[in-house]
Sequence to fold (1099 residues):
Amino acid sequence: MKKIIIIIYTTIILSTSQLLLAVDPNLINLANRAFNEELYEFAIKNYQKILATPQSYPPNILEQAQFYVSTSFYLTDQPALAIQSFQTFLSQFPKSQYKYEATHTLILTLQEQNQFEAAFSLGRKTLAETHAAFNPHYAPHNAKNSLTQSSSRLKKTHLTAQDVSFIVKTMSATTEALAIGTSDETRIEDFLTLIKDLRPTLEAALSHTPKPPPAYTSKEVAGDLLIIEGDLLTQLADHPEAANRYKTALKQSFTLVSKKTVRLALIKSYLEQRQYNLAEEILTETLYQTKDKAFQNELNFFLVHLAYLKGNYPKAIIGYKRYLDKTLQNQEPNSTTSSPSQSASELANITRVKEKYSVEALLHLALSYQQTEQSILALKTLSRVLTNPNLQSHHYRAHNLAYSLYELIEDDQALLETTEELLRLANNVGDRLTALEKSILFISRTGLAFDFVTNIHALIETRLAEYGNLQPAKNLSADLYLKAATYHYQNNQFEQSFNLFKAGYNLTHEPKLIFAAIEGLIEQKQFDRALTTALSLEQQLSSNRNSAPYLHDLIGFIYIKINDLTKARSYFELNTQQQDLSLKAHAYFYLGEIARLEEAYKKAIATYQQAETILTTATTSTRSNQTLPEVAAQPHTAPHPEKIAFQSLLFKIYFQIAKIHDITLPDPATAVRYYTAALDQAESLADYSNQNIIHIRLADLYLNKKEPAPIKAIDHLEKLTPQAAQTYYTGLLKLGSVYFNKNNYDKALAYYTRIINATEITQKPPPSQILEQAYNQRILIKVKLNAPREAYYYLGKMELNFPQSPLLAENYTRIADAFTVQKKWDTAIKIQLEAAAHASRISNIPWNISALFAAATTELIKNKTRKKNRNLAYTRFKDIIELSETHRLYTVIYLEACFEAAVLNADKGEHVLAGKQFRKILTHAPLIANQTPASRDFIVELQTQATENLERIDIFLAGSPYRALTHIPAIKEKIQNVSSPQLKAEGANLIIEKYLEKNRIEQALAYLKYAEKLWPLPKKTSINVMQALIKVKDYPNLHALALNYFLTDYFKDTQQHQEFLYYAAALSSAHLSKGRDSTRFKQKLKREFPTSTYLKNLN
Fold:
């Protein structure tokens, strides 16, 4: 249906100047009245009469007549006459007041005739001329009398509001032509720049328009330009920026399109960015607000399509089916509230939208079926498109989708028919390439069926012939074999690939096929088979001046790979005699490679430089000598293959020389020079992989320099792709690890430091896992170098960057242990408590428990006898027990904490509480032992000690609470029930203590003599008894016993009690009136312990 446009027409009134000329006013008035009343055919006849006698009318009348007759042709659906007439108008009246209106209408007409390139060229040219004419110096129009005004229309000196309006419409129409026609990023970016440059010109034009204000305001210009920029950015796939333009436009005024159109563009931008929630929010809001049925139809489609994009294919299937049912059943719009002309327009719009989105719904319904593995239903859905003759423009897409479905169900006949259809339907470059690809894929799938190849050749040749690009059948066959074999090779079907290459060569005798087969064998490292195949061709191709040198090159390369350098050299030396400079340079390059492999590095560099000289000479000479292809291609042409080959080889030469100077013959300055030269070649070739490699090497060289060169290093790091940057940092990490494992900590530290420093100097910092490892290794090295304070500094940075890192726990422990070794107990405890606090913040309970345990044990190591340290340690052990029980996290540390807490409680006399904690060990130990088999022996030992301590507590509690003598039988009973001699001795000690408390010294001494024969009593017990004995002056018999006891062998090796023994013996001797013995013991005490306090007692 005819595309509706809105054009501003004004009633045509003849001026006084027109009436003064010899003009038939009736004819002009008649034409104008007919145009204004939309009687376009009648108007055309009258305007043509005026244009037939141009000498009878002034220029402004001719200008009007030519413009309105052109417009009438457009409005009466006569595009060919409209195009011709508008082009005549623009050439005859280039500065007409109707120029922009005419340009806009002509662009629309060209678009309707699918002449998109012509439409874009016209729009681009007009806008560029406008920019040149009215920018940057805008001169406001000075009003003159009406006669002068009338004649000045032929001389465009300023832009009116109406001009600006049509300029913006021209921009919009040109943008549409650019989107539909063949385009590229460069053209789009160029046009976008032009739009931006024109903005100030248009705004200035409106600001100089006389009062009253124009109908088209600067605010509306700004809004319309935002929409146009958004459309261009969408073409550039810069969807975030496009969305920003649309959002800003919606907040302003604009005239180009309706708000619903801008909203739909914004929705599409969000969908492209996968911001599905935002898209759904706007969709729902807009659908609620609009009453336009065509627009509702579009919005309903996108709501369904949203489910498809989110991957909810079952929901999408239901939605597409409902959408299709509703859309296809309701073809007529509700026109009860519209005027007749509006109804016709709305009907046309709804019909067009329904066709567009119904097809999209059908195709995406098929895709949804495919995604849910319902291939048959998908094919049935596609048949609804393919069997509808009115949808022929969509058949190519449907066949393209059907091809992949037939592949899934392996229907070769259907694949053959679909391939033929694709080749028949392809009508542009992209579709033709896709169709050829499909045909080649099918050939590959079926093992290159020759009958199909013959059939497909005819179809392909037909299609190519239509576009004037027909190749000989032989070459086409070779190309198909090449692509089919390559397809197999890329899918790791190497044997099938080789067979196809060979079959193609036997059929077409095209050397490139067999060379490709040999290269494939080389890539698979099947060097023997590659060499056999290559040597078998030597005689066949010896007379082929083009192929023989390349074969020599392949054979020489294979000999290098199998390390037969002598034979390799002989083949490359053959090629040094070639006239082809590329082959000659290639030969010298590989002769340099051979010298390098033989470790003749200076010879290798000299040979590489011979290759370089040949290439650079060739490049220079070809500027004036055309025997070689032009090396320096013109800017508007693609680089010649010869230039690419030269640059590729130059890159290899420079890179190899640089590597030798970098690694083998260390000369950093020369290495930098050659790496830079190689980088220039890689950039010209757009070889991003090798660019990354060189940036890495240069960055490393600059980072290794003695003098500061951070800026140059940063420059190269910034140019790395993210993947290459990760490779570089991974390499540094690995090198650091190598030196670390060799205990070369200084070198290892240098590599780790580079990674850490890169975080602060470049926008491409190391990946987080690599940086985390670098921090970790640096901390470890500092600890190993006995620098825990530096390690602690880097631990702080690591914690800041990686608060959840599992490596933090072991680093806190590692650093605290280092301070413990240095006996800096307080620092160690501080770090352990910091670790516990951090673990608590990130809810890492195991780490929290471990850190608290380390702090508690360090408190005991610091001072086990000091009450404050013991209390602090006990508090932390208690916290560990509570944390473990709260989170049901029973580990070996939990058992240890219970044991240590129990021991501390026992030491404080809290035997009941200690008993509870020992019993917890016995309760949980079996389960923990099963969970941690490696700790089983330690856990068993804890169980044994817990059991023993519980028995000890039972013995002790048997003598409680008042330690009265009446409890001694209970203690003796407990002694009999325990098996441990140590516990029996402790029980005996408790009995003796009770006797001594009640001053039953004889009984204490008697039980001492009894017990020490049975169990290993502590000597402190004997001392306690003796101290009690010597204090009793009235019992000589006890002193005699004591003296006798002191002189036995029991105390001869007890140096620590010797001072007391001398004192006791001297005192007892004195009580027994043995003065000489008393004096002797006293002198020994004085001689061996001159500062003894016992001397005062004896005096």
Summary: The longest helix spans residues 340-371.
